[in-house]
Queue: 2 jobs
Job 1
Amino acid sequence: MRTTPNRNQLRAFFVMVLVDHATGCWLWTGRRTPQGFPLFPQCPPGPARLDAKVPSAARTSFAWFRGLLLPWPYWAIGHRCQNPNCVNPAHLHQRRTKRGEVVERPDRHALAEYFRHVRVESGCWLWQGERNADGYGLALARDGRRVSAQRLAYEWFVESLSARPARWQLDHVCNQRSCVNPAHLECVSQRENLERIGRRRRMR
Ligand SMILES: [Zn+2]
Ligand SMILES: [Zn+2]
């Protein structure tokens, strides 16, 4: 998504910028967060504005001059120049946050590879591949990243989770951590999930 700034917005932005000719960095002279990230209060609504409190100048720059793909918090802006105070779009890149693992639609090969690791047992799809320390399945995404196997199944067969607000979890209604059957997965808030875990413990 690319948002197009008008002249006044551009002027308000660039009046805050000091170009460092040695590094090419666009140093922000306006307000900053306590962590040193530039704030642009005139940041227009849209993906560049994280929330009402954090109108990020770097995100504004990226959205205007490069284009943002997804709403926060699924993308974060990184600085190639290592200078957190820089807003030069050429020095910025967007990276996925952990929650924002973007799942591609599976093709035949991806599905075949996925189900090579699945053993069906009384309705559960038990993941036979790699698992993390907590026993949850890990699958290999096309670009080589390890991703949650259950999340992959959920996104492929139920719905995309990228646009959800943060702090959801996939709950196993079958109580089998290694199960990746999307019909056994429910996307609930973190709080709801903790309550469910507590209830199940008490029932044991
Ligand atoms: Zn820079
Ligand atoms: Zn199951």
Job 2
Amino acid sequence: MVPPGLLPARRDRVTIRIGATLAARKGAVSGSQKGRHMNEQHLAAFRSSVNRCVADQAFLQDFYDRFMASSDEVRAKFNNTDMPAQKRALADSLFLLAVAVQGQSTSPSWRQMERIAERHSRGAMDIRPELYDLWLDCLMQAVAGHDPQYSPEIDAAWRSVLGEGITFLRSRH
Ligand code: HEM
């Protein structure tokens, strides 16, 4: 039998321990989510810059002109491509990426990215992983030329979002 004087002290200890455990778990969860999710400021800067860029009709044309001129291999890949449709698909995939980087790898937007990755893989169009460096350089030059608010912060925001998409597509080559 427990001596009467010990009961309140034991109960206090239990209460404190449970409180501490819950607080620690809460901290751990929000901490890990912060680590997994894209930096909010980057994401907001990316979204608003994408909107400004695509509002400019010449943006995606400028990107594809640069990309085609960057290598014979790239130009050959687009030999039979309907370019107006391709420009729309790329604009859509920029918005898709902005959603994907916010969520779990099982989200619908990553499943759509899977489909895009499959088309770029060696079993389909066989886009070599090295070509993504050219793609990024050309796209960032187009952003610099078409976003009137372009700045080092905007540049960093695009690179951090696109970096996730590029890593994903390369990993499925
Ligand atoms: C993260 C980077 C990239 C993204 C987000 C992206 C996005 C897309 C999307 C959304 C499509 C349309 C897919 C469909 O309709 O099923 C597409 C098609 C295509 N992409 Fe990419 N792409 C990327 C990088 C590249 C690179 C580096 C190349 C190198 C040449 C490339 C070449 C092509 C070609 C050839 C097509 C197909 C055109 C056609 O249907 O004829 N892409 N891309």
